[in-house]
Amino acid sequence: MTTHSTTSTNARPSARGTRLVVAGAPLDNDNRGVEALGTSVVAHLASAASVDSVSVLGDGWGVSADSSWPGDARVDRLGVRNSRRWHRRESWARIRVDRALGGLGNPVVARLGAADAVLDISGGDSFTDLYGPRRLATICAPKEAAVRSGRPLVLLPQTFGPFTTAEGRRRAEGLVRHSALAYARDAWSHEQLLDLAGPSADATRLREGVDVAFALPAREPAASVVEQLDSLTGEVVVGVNVSGLLREESAVARFGLAGPYLATMTSLVRELVRAGAVVVLVSHVHGVGRSESDDTAHGAVLDALDAVERTRVHRLSPLLRAAELKWCIGRLDWFAGSRMHATIAALSSQVPAFGYAYSDKTRGVFGTCAVAEDVVDARAVAGQEAVEQALASFARRDATREVLRRRVPDVVAQARGQLDDVLGAVSSWRDGSAGTVA
């Protein structure tokens, strides 16, 4: 690990405020989970008195100011891309060349060089080689740029791995060991982080945190959406998120699912209606023509229901932003879903939730709220057995709500406090009470 010392959040700031670059969570994103991560981080940083500027790396082009945030910090969005268009300054290949030649006026090179730290969150769960070498290269690019620029790299709470190739693991080990601070977002992932860092690493810099989306502030949506939910007053209203990523039959082989996912989720919706509930379908990944769109999966579920069942099923607009979706989910009596950040929106609002997951990350996150038993692995259980376990979660929702009432405030406080700890550490490095970046 890179040598730095950390201090409390009361560290004395120098004359100018802290300058930060945030990577791995584009704000304009059709994946509301990634958006929730970015929004949670930027909202907290922008409102901190010690912060002068926040440069958010995203998928766009050029540089644009964003004045929509609380606080006095300047927030800018900078386009970066793993693109073969070398003539574009947003291309990571061009950024590397421009930096080697002194910058050449490249705004990304300039922001990286001026940053007191680069905070990277890897989309929450993309620091892995499971999605292929090109995706890993995109995820590693801002981390490697921070190291090349000699800036402290902070890995914000995220999942580490798995890494299935020697090259992928070697790359991850190098970046973890170069980081000034690294946070895992659950106990399982913290074990992977320690393993990547190796036995000689300073364990005090390898921390177990919580997903930053627990700190996402909810925002009331348009009046028409509020009226839609108000019209359901007096009913037992539950939310269901059906993942577009898992809906195709090919997902069974691709993700090692125990059975057809869409059929399982359709049966769950049908059984919830039979139990007397009103079901609200909640999309968390959207995109016109996008094969992974949850809204497309919800259309398939509705098509499979009969006319009477459909009268008890409603659909939220897929265009709602992450903070608006959290506000809506917070109005529900229970929630079930496969998109992890949709379930985090429920848990952080103290709404009992059930996770039907295809990876280990969901159980770890539910475990931070002491409700890991409300996760079922879709790689092990499908069909009627999975539906029965979901219905058991629905039946014990009152008891689960009490657990969340006691546990969640501490988790939300931790989500915010860990960002304050990062700011305190960055202030100490900037004020010269630490060594230089290796």
Automatic annotation (TrEMBL):
GO terms for molecular function: transferase activity. The keyword Transferase applies. Pfam families: PS_pyruv_trans. Keywords: Transferase. Signal peptide: none annotated. Residues 82-359 form the Polysaccharide pyruvyl transferase domain. PANTHER family: COLANIC ACID BIOSYNTHESIS PROTEIN WCAK (PTHR36836). This is Polysaccharide pyruvyl transferase family protein WcaK. The lineage of its organism: Bacteria, Bacillati, Actinomycetota, Actinomycetes, Micrococcales.
